[in-house]
Amino acid sequence: MMGKIDKLLGQLFSQNDELSFKVFCFSIALGSITALVGCCLCFIAGVGWLPALMCLLGSLLVVVLGYIGKQTGHYRAVSIVISLFMNIIVFPILYVTTDGPYSCVPLFFILGLFLCLPVLRGKQRLITFTIEFLFYIVFMWWLYSIKYFSFPSRGHEMYQTMMISLCVIVVVLYIYMTIALMTRQYGIERKKANDLNIALKEQSYKDFLTQAYNRIYLMNYMDKQSHSECIDYGICMIDIDDFKIINDTYGHTIGDIVLKELSDISKDVLGNCGFVSRFGGEEFILIYHYYDKDIIETTLDELRRQLKASIQNSHKFDVTLSCGVYHVNENKYEVDILNEVDCLMYEAKHNGKDCVVFKKD
Fold first, then answer.
1. What's this model's pTM, rounded to 2 decimal places?
2. Number of domain units in the chain
3. What angle do CA 48, 52, 53 make, to 5 degrees?
4. Is 45 left (phi over 0), alpha (psi -120 to 50) or beta?
5. Which of 28, 125, 21 is nearest to 78 (CA)?
6. 324 burial via Cβ count (<10 Å: 0-12, 13-18, 19+)
7. What tens digit of pLDDT does each residue of 181-215 get?
8. Is there a domain that residue 210 lies in?
9. Based on the domain organization, do 151 and 227 belong to the same domain?
10. What is the DSSP code string of 227-275?
């Protein structure tokens, strides 16, 4: 049971505008239909036809605009139109054409002000609420200044009923505001939890040292590609030449700097063409989403040039890379593809290192 309540609160008070909009329209429509029934009974009793007409217009408007909002997805804009129409046109006319302070329309005023709050956000909520609230103040001041209605005196038989109604309204508003504050905090905490989950998921696919993608992400990508209709991507295995000598000569801290520098420069030169993954130790995999030999050759030459210049400037020694490139254009097991590109990388090693070897077509 608590799980269902948690899910409902999460849907209603997070960013689910559609559900909030449905609740808002249902509440307005239910109130309008209820008032319509009451006004029709009053019309039969000879009170007048205008209140019933306004309730009918309000009900029809909510139905029509609710349908428009559902079809277009402009939930907040439609909510503002409905709220302004009901609070600035329908309710004031009902107030004037019924018994004013002796009717239940003042309750509609207050509920109408607060019903749109869960749907709207930020400035929209503040501006809409302020416009309607100021309108009510001016409207009520104008009515009583021209003595259209008079407030019941303390001894009047309606006075006690109005005071009880006012107390009920205050209690309802207190409960509403308490729930609103609680659910607002709930929404904030829920968003924090969702953001944290996203961040943790992202980090689970990243190598801690270099912040390149790890082998899990790489294998998932290759698995998805193997199930696609059109397989056509490039994979490059990179190995830092004589990396053990670098660690032994300059220390593991400098070796880590070389690894991070290789990862960062790889991301820059690849851009949107693909991604870089740390395969293990000093070996990295570059994935090109689309195979283009010229682009791959250009990016690898730029990567080798920038890495060599960067380490030479900062630590005064040369770093070279051996690269093997394989064109994946057919369905193969991931391990077979990695074996192919690994052999190409070792062929580059045997060719004297610091070079790129492509699979011969």
1. 0.54
2. 2
3. 105
4. alpha
5. 21
6. buried
7. 666 666 778 888 888 888 888 888 999 999 999 99
8. no
9. no
10. TSSS--EEEEEEEETTHHHHHHHH-HHHHHHHHHHHHHHHHHHHGGGEE
